[in-house]
Structures are given as structure tokens and as C-alpha cells.
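User: Hi! I'm working on a homework problem where we have to compare a predicted structure to a textbook description. Could you give me the structure for the chain below?
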Amino acid sequence: MYRKFSERVEKVVKLASKIAREYELEYVGTEHILLAIRRDGTGLGAKVLADRGISEEQLKAEVDKLVKKSMEDTWVFGRLPGTPHFRNVVAAALEQAEKMEADMLRTEHLLLALLKEHGSVAYEALRNLKCDYDSVLAAVTEASGDDETLA
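Assistant: Happy to help. Predicted C-alpha cells:
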């Protein structure tokens, strides 16, 4: 079933593109979505990160460290709207939203999908900051009754 992106997710995706440009990159990766969720600062995805004491600065430092390491071993060819990991995360987030019977894709679905995308920069950054799928899912489930947070 098709899920509509919430206005917040649309904003986060646009912000992710802006963040990718800040890194002077021509693609959007999982790390940019993760940083955008936290930078936006609204929505349940950002709240779950904040509740775990994960600041934008901590995420950026972790992402920078991981990206620097991967850039030593990687060469990117061409222009892509999103990396394969990025596309996987969007597909997984849509599945997560459907599984949770949400009326639209929200930032918490993106965050949960990022935590399932093993091998991505976002997954490694979250793991290094002690953020895991099960605890985030529990926090999202607990907060799911607060319609303002989910909008």
C-alpha cells in the first residue's frame, strides 16, 4: 500500500539534500537523512534521538569520522539522487509505516529503517552512539499515542 510522506518527512528529505550539499556531495546518503532528522528537531524521530542524549553535534562528529574513513576506500561515480542504502531506507521506512498501520511515512519510520540498514554510515553512527532498533521501536511504540509528536 502506498504511504504518503508527512510534511515533516518531505522537509527532512529536502534538508538531507541541503546537508549533502554542505558536504559538497552530489548524492544523498543515509547519513544525510539521519542528520536531517536530528537537525529538524521536530517529530518523534528527533525526540527519540534527543531522549537518548544524541545531539546534532555528536551525530555530525560520528558521521564525519565514518565518512572520512570510507572516503579513503571509496570512489563515487556519477550523479545519484540517493545511494543504494538511501533507497533501501526509504523502502524499509514505507514497510515500517505499513506494519505500524500509520497513515503516512513519518520521521520515526525513517529512523527505524536507518537502524536496520547494516553497513550504512547512519547505521554505524547510531550504533556507535549506543542507539539500537529495539530500544527505538519501544520508544516509538510508547509515544505513538501523542498525535502532536507524530505529525
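For your comparison, note the following. The chain has nine helices and two strands. The domain at 4-146 is CATH 1.10.1780.10 (Double Clp-N motif). Good luck with the assignment!
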